[in-house]
Specification:
The chain is of the alpha/beta class. The chain folds into three domains: 330 residues, 3-Layer(aba) Sandwich (Alkaline Phosphatase, subunit A); 78 residues; 76 residues, Copper Amine Oxidase, Chain A, domain 1 (2-Layer Sandwich), CATH 3.30.457. Helices cover 36% and strands 19% of the residues.
């Protein structure tokens, strides 16, 4: 009897485990602190502990559970474009590639790539969830909306810097909530389109951002990126945590659930600039957004939250050989100096440009607590881009720039170190809240495996199949039909004719085409790749030629 009872218990456990494995989550929140090495997390935690002893832990601390190996298709160290692209699509890609399949490189490819698929747009998690599950989708960030990480979620390009390709795709990809920077990049036609589609569109309008009652909205602040947290004026710009809360409030109204990506964009920018104070405080600000997401998920019970950087950056360290005996320094000696910084390097530069040179030393002291030495004072005067300098052009150093000089100078007054101004290849941390018992991803995994975890949790099928369905080559879709590719108003345009009464006009970067002069709205965007002069579009478009 004992044996039978044990077998029954075992069967029950196996059955319950299978049920748990099959269970899917309703909502997914992916939070990415861009370019964040683990040392930056440690510094943020110590900074918070030093300034707020009652808060010894970050919000993400209880959920830390592993590490992720993140890489490009052909190199161990990646930039934001191919690394976030892998989280979104399941395929590593090349530097600069936004949700786009990389060309094959048999000598260097870390995973095999199909040369026939080179430059093909790849379906993203957000696109797939919206198209196949009717979920709401959202993006929150502090960079401009066309920057690599948000772009990876809802656009496709082999050149992350070509905002003229990326911006219209972002606008036309039916994202429900978009909050962040980039006012300058939303042209009047894009704004008109969004408003026509029922969006509230708010540009540098904090009050409307806070009071708008609709569920579909774009709210952008500043021409390009938003300020560092140290420089943020709360009367003009929302915090990342406030934007995260707003997005969750709006998206959670969808009965089918939602997928949301939240990026702490400028942790990465601060690391590139070797700006320790901006790096640390933007990481603290990002952690507050994590707190918003985890609080919602704990209460909601149907939400998966994953926090993971896309790559490391700068070789930032707490301690440096520049400071003898640094390993014996107190928390006051390590975190006291940086806690006096009231501005980022960018903010300090802006203040110096607006202040007479006679006040230079006072400004630096007021904003950083640093009393400039005569040598440091002269270094600033010698910067070629310091517009208030009392030195003549001939006396200034042409290669000396304020950003580098001030970043180095401020770092010299701390015991932090940097090895580079570029990306680094170490594994990144993973933090997860999974409402499904026993399903939390733990241990060490690759970026591909993290994508698979996100995709399976959301109940999404094979994204490659969706890619082939929605991003097929126009030469295959319209095989046998005459077509021309022209440029209209600077936009590549495909015209296909079955006969005089049955024509299609399709513009790149849009989800709107014209069939016999009438607008047809697609559920995906059309992408043109100039490398092979190919339009990538839904296979179903051929069916329009069978409609009488």
């Amino acid at each position: 009897m004992k044996r039978i009872g044990s077998l029954l218990l075992l069967l029950l456990l196996i059955g319950s485990n299978l049920i748990a494995q099959e269970k899917q989550v309703k909502n997914v929140i992916l939070l990415i602190p861009d370019g964040t090495s683990l040392s930056a997390v440690s510094a943020a935690r110590w900074y918070q502990r030093y300034n707020h002893p009652e808060l010894p832990h970050l919000n993400l601390d209880p959920y830390l559970c592993g590490t992720i190996l993140t890489y490009s298709s052909d190199a161990p160290i990646g930039d934001s474009a191919p690394t976030t692209s892998c989280y979104m699509t399941g395929h590593p890609s090349r530097a600069g590639f936004v949700a786009t399949y990389p060309p094959a490189d048999s000598k260097n490819d870390i995973v095999p790539n199909d040369p026939e698929r080179a430059y093909q747009p790849m379906m993203t998690l957000l696109e797939a969830a919206r198209i196949t599950q009717n979920k709401a989708t959202g993006l929150v960030f502090t960079c401009e909306f066309t920057h690599a990480t948000p772009a990876d979620c809802a656009s496709h390009s082999y050149n992350r810097g070509n905002y003229e390709w990326i911006a219209p795709q972002m606008v036309h990809n039916n994202i429900d909530v978009v909050l962040g920077g980039g006012v300058k990049l939303l042209n009047p036609d894009m704004k008109t389109y969004l408003e026509r589609e029922g969006y509230g569109v708010f540009l540098n309008d904090l009050n409307s951002f806070r009071t708008y009652n609709g569920n579909k909205m774009w709210a952008l602040f500043r021409d390009m990126d938003m300020p560092y947290e140290l420089d943020r004026d709360p009367s003009l710009y929302p915090s990342l945590a406030e934007m995260a809360r707003k997005a969750i409030d709006k998206l959670s109204e969808n009965e089918n659930g939602f997928i949301l990506m939240i990026e702490g964009s400028k942790v990465d920018w601060a690391a590139h600039a070797n700006d320790a104070a901006a790096l640390i405080t933007d990481m603290v600000a990002f952690d507050k957004a994590c707190g918003v997401a985890f609080d919602f998920a704990e209460k909601n019970g149907e939400t998966l939250v994953v926090v993971v950087p896309d790559h490391g950056n700068s070789g930032f360290s707490i301690g440096t050989k520049r400071c003898p005996g640094y390993s014996h320094l107190s928390k006051e000696e390590l975190f006291g100096p940086v806690s006096q910084f009231k501005t980022s390097v960018d903010g300090l530069i802006a203040k110096l440009h607006d202040t007479d040179v006679s006040q230079l030393k006072d400004v630096v002291y007021d904003l950083t607590g640093i009393s400039l030495s005569d040598d440091e004072y002269t270094q600033i005067l010698q910067c070629s881009d310091y517009n208030r300098s009392s030195l003549s052009d001939e006396e200034r150093m042409k290669g000396s720039k304020l950003t580098k000089v001030l970043a180095n100078m401020l770092t010299e007054h701390t015991c932090f170190g940097f090895t580079t101004t570029g990306h680094t290849g170490e594994e990144v941390f993973l933090a997860v809240f999974d409402p499904r018992a026993g399903q939390r991803l733990m241990g060490h995994h690759t970026n591909i495996e993290l994508h698979q975890y996100l995709r399976n949790a959301a109940g999404l099928g094979d994204l490659d199949a969706l890619t082939n369905e929605y991003f097929a080559k126009h030469t295959d879709v319209f095989a046998g039909y005459p077509y021309t590719i022209t440029t209209k108003n600077g936009v590549p345009t495909l015209e296909v004719k079955k006969d005089k009464k049955n024509t299609l006009e399709i513009q790149a970067g849009s989800n709107i085409l014209k069939h016999n002069g009438k607008e047809v709205k697609l559920s995906s965007v059309v992408v043109h790749v100039d490398k092979n002069n190919t339009f990538y579009l839904p296979k179903s478009l051929k069916d329009l030629f069978t409609v009488k």
